[in-house]
Structures are given as C-alpha cells and as structure tokens.
Amino acid sequence: MAWGNDAADSRLHGTNIADSVIDTIGSTPLVRLKRISEIHGIECVLAMKMETTNPGGSAKDRPALEMILAAERSGELRPGGTIVEPTSGNTGVGLAIVAAQRGYKCVFVMTDKVAPEKVSLLRAYGAEVVVCPVAVPPEDPTSYYKVAERLTVERDAFRPNQYANPNNPLAHEKTTGPELWAQTGGRITHFVAGAGTCGTITGTARYLKAQNPAIKIIAGDPDASVFSGGSGRPYLVEGVGEDFYPAAWSPDLYDQVIPISDEESFLTARQVSREEGILIGGSGGMAVATAIRVAKAAAPNDIVVVLNPDSGRGYLSRVFDDQWMANFGFLRECDECIAAVLDARGDTPSLLYVNPSTSVRNTIDLMRANGISQLPVCKNTPPFAAAEVAGAVDELDLMEAVYRDSSVLDSAVEQVMGPKLPTIGVGQKVALAVEMLDVAPALLVLSGGRPLSVLTRSDLLSYFEVLSNG
Ligand SMILES: Cc1ncc(COP(=O)(O)O)c(C=O)c1O
Q: I need a surface site. Which of 8, 175, 196, 199 has the fewest CB within 10 A?
C-alpha cells in the first residue's frame, strides 16, 4: 500500500512514508474467516473487513476525518477551535486523532455503560471526558445528549453530531464501499454490519447497491434495539443498536435486520478471538453471529463480507473477563453450579417481581400468596435486562415500615424498597452462593444477562438435603 505524501519534499520521493497518521485512515484489509466457516459448516466465502487496522483501531476514524474536513470547509470549525461530541468512545478516538494533527481541543460526553478502558483511552489522547448516567431519558438535563448540547454552547464548540451529520455515511460511501468493491473484484454478494448511527451500513450500502443492486445488505442488531423491532430497552453490547432512529437510518437500503442476543454476541466474539486469532469486541461478535446466519443460507459461490468495527482490547474487563461473563450468566464455571440448585428445586417458577409503582399492599399480598420473603422490584415487564432491576423488598423491612406508619400500605413500593439483591450467574459455583448468603438474605440469579430467579438460604438447604439423600 502506498501512502500519499508531500510531493514537494524531494526527500520523500520514492518512499512509502505517510505524511501524517491521518493519511493511514482506511484501506483496511479483508480477511477470510476460514476456521469460523469450518466450525459452522459454511460453504461460501466469508470474509471480515478489519477496521481495527485504522490508526484509532476502529471504523470511526473514517467519519471522524470526513466530518472535521467538512467543518473546516464550511467554517464551523476554525483554527484552535473546540470539538464536543457525545460518543461511546470510538468516534472520540477518531476525532481526537484528527484534532491532534490539526490543532483542535476535544470534549467527549459518554454514558456510564461504556467500558472504563474507553474513558481512559480518550483521556490518553489529551481529551476531556464527561461521564453521564445511562439510566435517564434523553430529555433529562443529565443525559449525555443534553450535557453535550449544553457544553457545545458554553464552549462555542463545533458539534460533529455523528447521529445527524451526512458526512458520517458519506465517509463510508466514499471509502469503505469502494474498498470492498475493489477487494472482492466486484463479486461481493452480501454485506453485514452492526448499526449504531447507521453511518457504516448506510454509506457502504449506498455505494455497493449503486454498483450492483442485487448485493444484499444485512444489519445485525441487539435484540432489544428499535432497528430490529425491539423497544430500545437496555442491553449490554456496546456501540450498536438504538432507542431512536438516527438520520442515516435507511430501511430501503437494508434487505434484512437480524436481532442478536447479548449472549450470542459475546460468545461469538470469544470464539472468533480464540479460533481466528482476531481479537474482536461484543459488537463485532454480534456482526459475525449475523454473518454466520447469512453465510449458512448463502450459495457456495457467494462472498459474504462482515465488517468488524473495533478491537476486543476495549472490552477486556467485560467480554473477555470470565468472572464478569459468569456473573451475568453467560458462562458456566463448573458442573456443580447454581443451575443444579434451581433444578433440584424442580418447579422453578417464572421470576416473581413487582413494578416500582406497585402498592405496598399488593406487594405484601403477592409475597404472602407465594410464601416468599424477598422480591425484586423491576421496571417494565419480562423479559427483564439486569439493568432494569430497580431494587428489592424484604418482608422484614416492609413489616417495620408498615408498623411505623400504616398509610405506607397505599404508597408505591419504590418509596420503601431497599437496594438490589446481589447477583450470581446461573453457571457460578454453589460455594460462592454459600459465601454470599452469609451476608445477603437472597440472591438474584442471572442467565444470559437476564434475571431468572431469586435464590434463598432455604433453596440451598433443600439442595444439600437432596445431595445427601442422593
Ligand atoms: C463498537 C461499535 N460498533 C459498531 C458501531 C456502529 O457503527 P455506525 O455508528 O456507523 O452505525 C459503533 C458505533 O459507534 C461502534 O462503536
């Protein structure tokens, strides 16, 4: 690959020295996923566009560059100016790289759902990072959208707004699409990618469909995201899926949007990393899980390309941390695990819960009718995400509250609820439950990232009894 360099500097003639890191954005490799294809019985050619080889390690370097160059041309960004952007990290890195080269300051606003490594990474590029709570609606003044709006005004800054900026999809239309067309000799039949701002999938689709309208465009999507028909409820995969439709959302260009669970996304990310030696993150795992489905149904001569947006390095404390994975019920640590305790209980009922607005009176009735002493308080209706658990109620606490003031019976349970129950994964060790129940009255068991059941000391006692009779 030859980088463009300063033609006027004769010392560079005949060299392959890039003028700056900006000139190394794009032209990423396309690599076959042969081992994944073997494992999953895929007959067509399945290849991955490796966006990790961009200087910032993600696909977002492309729109970052395009958005800044366009803002310089339009005068929105002046020499020494400031850039403010709400971003989950990757766009921030791209912007920080281009800003460093061109002399701008950067302020990034993100939610507390983002892996802590991503925050440190942006600070390493000299950027200011403001972290906001994820659990507030977009119109709340502390939401990351609103905080970014306020900072843009206060600092007289340029706001690239990747969710609305046409230069985001344009970057992919100008670079990613043509690269894929050239790299496959015009024989690409399917393009698969995750969608967040929809810049990647829409821009690439525009170019590819213009070359050959028969090319199929498939989006992988977290199963709770609105793109695949979800309601935008919480999920754990980062950077993809939304609870609203960004400007670049173009359903006419997409042939299919396939919902993928957190569990399948994470397990696929781990499988690709181990089997192919390509370290990818949760959203890359989601894209590959989608591509596996597409490729299985494709004809042997088809070429299915999946875009991997970034590296697994940003997710070492989550997707690649066995403890974290096990605690959410994504991994089994042992045979003798919590699942066996639930099996021994036999009639594992669906999770009993109350909503925060349920009255204390109805909560007590529910507990009495089912002979239970603890109940989780969850927002919405099942299936819940772990993030939708708001707290818990305990028989003892309710008794004390009602004794002090009987009018509490008609209050919403959220007025008197206690903290959330500690969580344990369905595949974690029984010994861990014994240790935790020494201090906690009950545990909330998670499976596939979702609350499954409440585990009490009496459940463990029954299990030990079954074992000893066994
Ligand atoms: C990790 C990751 N994957 C995928 C995407 C989706 O790309 P796009 O925003 O172009 O739809 C993003 C977007 O931020 C991302 O950060």
A: 8
pLDDT digits (tens, 9 = 90+) for 133-156: 887 888 899 988 899 999 999 999
State phi, psi for 117 to the nearest 5 degrees: -60, -30
The string of pLDDT tens digits covering residues 172-186 is 999 999 999 999 999
60 is catalytic: yes
Domain extent, residue 285, equals: 26-58+175-315
**50, 52, 192, 197: residue to mutate for ligand 1 pocket, most atoms within 8 A of CB:** 197
- The verdict on pTM exceeding 0.70 is yes
| Domain-ending residue, one of 315, 350, 379 | 315
Residue to probe by mutation, ligand 1, list 49, 51, 54, 90, most atoms within 8 Å of CB: 90
Among the three residues 315, 346, 371, which one is the final residue of a domain in this structure? 315
In this structure, the residue with its CA closest to atom 14 of ligand 1 is: 239
Residues 52-72, mean pLDDT to the nearest whole number: 98
Q: What local confidence, expressed as pLDDT, does residue 347 receive?
A: 65
Q: Which of 236, 168, 154, 241 shows the shortest CA–CA distance to 202?
A: 168
Ligand 1, atom 16, residue with closest C-alpha: 239
136: domain CATH number? Answer: 3.40.50.1100
Residue 285 has pLDDT above 80, yes or no: yes
Sign (positive or negative) of CA dihedral 427, 431, 434, 436? negative
Task: Compute, in angstroms, the gap from residue 247 CA to the centroid of ligand 1.
Answer: 14
**What length does the chain have?**
470
Name all residues whose Cβ lies below 6 A of ligand 1.
88, 90-91, 194-201, 238-240, 281, 283, 309-310
Q: Give burial (CB, 10 Å; 0-12/13-18/19+) of 241.
A: buried
Share of the chain above pLDDT 70, in %: 98
d(CA 391, CA 378): 7
Which residue among the candidates 49, 60, 118, 379 is catalytic per the annotation? 60
40 CA from centroid of ligand 1 (Å): 26
Q: Mean pLDDT in the chain?
A: 94
Judged against a pLDDT cut of 80, whether residue 113 lies above it is answered with no
